[in-house]
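Appendix B. Raw example, untouched.
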Amino acid sequence: MNDMSAWASKIARELLEQPLPRRWAHTQGVARKARSLAPILGDDADLLEAAAWLHDIGYSPQIAVTGFHPLDGARYLRDIVHADDVVCRLVAGHSCAIIEAEQRGLVEELSREFPPADEPLRNALTYCDMTTTPDGEHVTVGSRLSEIRDRYGPGHLVTRFIRLAEPYLVDAVRSVQSHLGPHTTDIFRIGTTHI
């Protein structure tokens, strides 16, 4: 773990481990997956791993303000800990957050404060998030999306967001998988072709 990743891990642990142990387990799994992408990310590997550690800190009751975790987490990172701009933008935009921001009436704030990071890094973070269960285990993107819909129920805003975002989330996961090629095992490919 490099300096930026170690720093990010410490912040995430402080904000998530005690109040939200399941969210902490998910975060650890997402960070492990980000670390596994180092062979295809080169110089951006540490940046992605840091964003993976921090992507869900906005759920922490200590920093939640708007109730929209990508925005709350990114604001905390920018305003309180003065994190790298790209890390803040990755956290703010992770896993198609802009689509959920539209559902919440926060798209203007999110877009103005945190312009999107480069697509390859956004896709990589989406891949890590959308192929990791709430307990930190590997899962196919189709199973992950089903789990989210089941957890929130049919009428919930998050379920509506997932329905709208699904094609983009699946495309992001497939994009990363196509770059993994021989660097991965078949488990990363199972279940994404039938969606």
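End of appendix B.
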